Amino acid sequence: MTSKRAAISFTGGKDCTLALCLTKETHDVVLLVTFVPKNFTSFKAHSLELIKLQAKALDIPHVLVEIGEEGKTHLQCYREKIAEVKQLYNLDLLVTGDILNVCDNFMAKATQDIIDLSCPIWAIDRRKLMETLFERQFELLITCASIKKLGDDEELARKFVGSKLTRDFVKDMLEPREADVDMGGELGEFHTMVLTVPGLYNGHRIEYDGLQTIEGEYMFVEFKNIRLVSVS
Q1: Which of the listed residues 54, 73, 97, 121 has the most CB atoms within 10 Å of its CB?
Q2: pLDDT tens digit string along 67-92?
Q3: Of the candidates 2, 5, 1, which has an alpha carbon nearest to the alpha carbon of residue 90?
């Protein structure tokens, strides 16, 4: 296989980081791209401050790409920005951590006839996904949960948000609810951020202080004092 210059659509979560790991095995990952709405500050599930520290640990250039322009559709804006980034960084491939078609094949439409799209963990079995993450020693923090999608159970959401996603968490919290909650959180039940991956984070991990916060249907970690520390 010919190695390509690849960019990762990057939120700092488990899926895009696993896609990054798999892509690095065959291609040259030269860029992390985080798409954000115009005049944006941060996501509830994915702290921009934390994402920037992840990029520093990964030692891969990172860009924020603002999406939104009056008179243009969301899709038009994405297509224009993807074309710009492709040309600016001489890219061959855009990689996502998408697993399910939850947005009407949006990224396929956004990249069509512009750049090749790769989704290396598309349709992966959730148990295989979890085991792959644990085998690669991902340290995963559950940063956000939808109270509504957890059965309108605020106390259950509190057991998710701020917890580490581990084999024990899967066994105790996810497997018993497998009929109602996607084990990977792929329907928006919960979201994660990656604190470290041995080798991938170049001897670093992310540490933080934080509190559980509720806004509407969402409970999330309000981060404070996020820092990148050496573990070597």
Answers
A1: 54
A2: 988 888 999 999 999 999 999 999 99
A3: 5
Tokens for 216, please give them: 């509407």
> Which whole number is the average pLDDT over 212-217?
96
Whether pTM > 0.85 for this model: the answer is yes
Give the number of other CB atoms < 10 A from CB of residue 119: 19
Cα–Cα separations (whole angstroms), residue 164 to 2, 54, 184, 221: 37, 17, 13, 12
Check if the beta carbon of residue 193 is closer than 8 Å to that of residue 12.
yes
The closest of 198, 204, 201 to 228, measured between CA atoms, is 204
213: tokens are: 């916060």
Gap between the Cα atoms of 207 and 12, Å rounded: 14
| pLDDT confidence of residue 1 | 64
122 SS3 class: coil
Q: Which H/E stretch holds residue 205? A: strand 204-215
Burial class (CB in 10 A: 0-12, 13-18, 19+), 158: middle
